[in-house]
Amino acid sequence: xxxxxxxxxxxxxxxxxxxxxxxxxxxxxxxxxxxxxxxxxxxxxxxxxxxxxxxxxxxxxxxxxxxxxxxxxxxxxxxxxxxxxxxxxxxxxxxxxxxxxxxxxxxxxxxxxxxxxxxxxxxxxxxxxxxxxxxxxxxxxxxxxxxxxxxxxxxxxxxxxxxxxxxxxxxxxxxxxxxxxxxxxxxxxxxxxxxxxxx
Length: 199
What we know:
Blueprint: H1 2-33, E1 40-44, E2 47-48, E3 53-58, E4 62-63, E5 79-91, E6 95-101, E7 111-118, E8 125-128, E9 131-136, H2 138-142, E10 147-155, H3 162-169, E11 178-186
Antiparallel strand pairs: 1-2, 1-5, 3-11, 4-5, 5-10, 6-9, 6-11, 7-10, 8-9
């Protein structure tokens, strides 16, 4: 009997080690499976961003008023603007956004971009010729903050442009359209916004 006991003792010891190791493995596996992925739900002008980049065309401007122009219509001599709103309030990380405008579609003799700014006077940075960037921190996101970038445009009133201006106005439902690309990425500490120094 002692002989069998001596043979079974090491076997029993090995079984206990195996059971303990398996229990530890199961515990670690369970803890790992409970990790959740940070949410990444960001809206651009009330539209949910799909992926990291959104490309669209702006054709909705707010124009100044004149007694000589029907309300809601654009004409030479008026100033207008449009907004790009970045809403990251369902994101669990700080974000960086880069907004690129394609102003090449505008005739520079007719239209001038007079200013691009963040309407709450946040420090948006011009990082390329037609790209403007900023960071929204996790603290700002938790506070429910959004960033709204406003682009101001002037339709130049110049008699030399009469033919061009008329050609725009004679097309039914004609619109001024500006392509825009918005790229949003997770902000990583140390990532810097380098100001564009070109013309």
